Amino acid sequence: MRSKQRERGGFTLVEILIVVVILGVLAAMVIPQMSSATDEARIGAAIANRNAIHSAILSYFKDHAEYPQTLDPDWFVNKRLPANPFGQAWEGDPVQEFSSNDLSRRIPEYKIINPSLNYGKPFWYHPRTGDIYLRVPDQGNDAETLALFNRINGLDLTSITQDMP
After folding, report:
1. For the segment 96-120, what is each residue's pLDDT rounded down to a tens digit?
2. Domain boundaries, the chain
C-alpha cells in the first residue's frame, strides 16, 4: 500500500499571514525614520541657503563698506535667491526688509511663514545690520516653532515674542 503523504507545493495561509505581519511591523518602524530624514534634510537645506545668502551679504559689505539696501538676485546661481525650503514659491521679491523702527521683530507671526498675509515672505533682511533670517512654518505650538526658528537661524531666543538680536 502506498502511503498517502501530501506533497508541499506552496505556502499555507498561516505562513503567508506571518510574513505579512512581519513586513508590516518593519514598515511601521522604517517609515517614521524616513519622514524624520526628510525633515532633517529640509532643515539642512534651510541652513545652507541662509548661509549662502549671508555670505553674499558679507561679500558685498567687504566690497562696499556697507550692507546692501536690498538683496540682488544676480549675486546667486540662476539669478535668484536660494529658496527657503519651508516656504512656497513666492511671486516677486521673497525678502521682507526691516525698517529702522520696525516692531515686527517682536511679533510672533513675523517668525512664521504665512503666504496668505503680507508678512509671510520667506526671508527677513535688515539692511542696517546685514542680518538675514528664514521664516519657518508654524509647528503647532510656540516652543517647537521657536526651536526650529532658532536652529535654522543660529539664534538662542527663549520666547517667541522676544526681540531679534
Report:
1. 766 555 555 555 556 776 655 545 6
2. 13-153
